[in-house]
């Protein structure tokens, strides 16, 4: 499956407009190549400056959206982690667990999108910017750090709290139950998109 379809299929519905605009940036690479070939010269440094600025701007936009969603979601998750203060605790756990996992997926997809875009630029222009760009991109580093230091610990907290409340303290069982609930909730969100993508492939 092409990455553009993978991105469309795996994007979380409520956050759909927050993902990297992969098609637009891929189109920019082709437009740059066409312009450069048309003039008979290949100023790759000019093309890279323009393209990298576009990618960085897109990643900054994504980071801003991520920070906003995380602020709201982590606040909700902190309350849900205490079953004594949250009604309908079991259902709320599953819903927050879904969104926390989707935050991880959001960062993964956008990071992969950026990697593939720079790789595609390098392929078109015969350059080698990818490794340096990925290591030095502050927005990508910050998104990854947010997942590691904030999202994953909260996922772990939800798992422990759920285990204590419903699984006799057995975290493995809690993870299995939450993962099953996660899969069921994603069926509807992914199902419609999947059928649309099949039609596009045909």
UniProtKB/TrEMBL annotation:
| Record's bilayer topology term | Multi-pass membrane protein
Which subcellular locations apply to this protein? Vacuole membrane
One Pfam match, given by its short name, reads SPX
What is one GO biological process annotated to this record?
Answer: polyphosphate biosynthetic process
**Statement: the UniProt record of this protein carries the keyword Hydrolase:** no
Which stretch is the leader sequence?
Answer: none
Swiss-Prot/TrEMBL keywords: Membrane, Transmembrane, Transmembrane helix, Vacuole
Q: Which PROSITE patterns match?
A: SPX
**Domain annotation SPX: ranges:** 1-135
The lineage's top-level taxon is Eukaryota
What name has this protein been given in UniProt? Answer: SPX domain-containing protein
Species name: Perkinsus marinus (strain ATCC 50983 / TXsc)
């Amino acid at each position: 499956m092409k990455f553009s379809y993978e991105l469309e299929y795996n994007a979380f519905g409520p956050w759909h407009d927050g993902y990297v605009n992969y098609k637009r940036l891929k189109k920019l690479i082709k437009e740059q190549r066409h312009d450069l070939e048309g003039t008979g010269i290949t100023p790759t440094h000019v093309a890279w400056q323009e393209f990298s600025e576009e990618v960085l701007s897109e990643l900054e936009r994504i980071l801003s959206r991520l920070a906003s969603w995380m602020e709201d979601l982590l606040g909700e998750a902190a309350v849900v982690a205490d079953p004594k203060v949250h009604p309908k605790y079991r259902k709320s756990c599953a819903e927050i667990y879904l969104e926390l996992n989707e935050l991880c997926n959001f960062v993964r997809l956008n990071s992969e999108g950026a990697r593939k875009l720079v790789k595609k630029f390098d392929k078109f222009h015969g350059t080698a910017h990818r490794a340096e760009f990925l290591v030095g991109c502050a927005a990508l580093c910050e998104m990854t750090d947010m997942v590691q230091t904030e999202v994953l610990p909260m996922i772990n907290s939800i798992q422990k709290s759920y285990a204590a409340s419903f699984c006799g303290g057995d975290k493995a069982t809690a993870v299995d139950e939450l993962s099953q609930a996660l899969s069921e909730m994603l069926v509807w969100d992914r199902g419609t998109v999947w059928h649309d993508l099949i039609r596009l492939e045909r």
